[in-house]
Write a structure and sequence with these properties.
The protein has about 90 residues and is mainly alpha-helical. The chain is about 55% helix and about 10% strand. The protein has five helices and three strands, in the order ααβααββα.
C-alpha cells in the first residue's frame, strides 16, 4: 500500500469502493433509506461518469445541493424531481 497518495487518488479509491458496494442487487434498498446523499453516493445515484461531471452540475447550478461547511450534500427527493423535470418529452408523430 502506497503511503504518498494524493487527495485526488484517495477520492477516486473511495468512489470506486462506494460504487462496488452500491451496484449489487440491493442498490435500490441502499438509496431508499437515505434522505441526504454525499457526492460519491450522488454520482452513483445519478449514474454520472465522474466526479468532474457532478462538479460541473454544481458549479453551473443545474442540480440542487446544500453546502454544510465544506461538504456538499444532496437531497434525494430533490434529485428525483430534478431527474423528472429534465426528462425529454417525445413529439407526437
Amino acid at each position: 500500500m502506497e503511503v504518498n497518495k494524493t487527495k485526488y487518488q484517495l477520492e477516486i479509491e473511495k468512489l470506486n469502493t462506494t460504487k462496488n458496494c452500491a451496484t449489487n442487487k440491493n442498490d435500490q434498498k441502499f438509496f431508499e433509506n437515505l434522505k441526504w446523499l454525499t457526492s460519491s453516493e450522488t454520482i452513483i445515484y445519478l449514474r454520472l461518469s465522474s466526479v468532474g461531471a457532478l462538479r460541473q452540475l454544481v458549479y453551473r447550478r443545474k442540480i440542487p445541493f446544500y453546502k454544510f461547511g465544506r461538504r456538499l450534500l444532496f437531497n434525494r427527493t430533490e434529485l428525483d424531481q430534478f431527474l423528472e423535470s429534465s426528462r425529454n418529452q417525445r413529439k407526437a408523430a
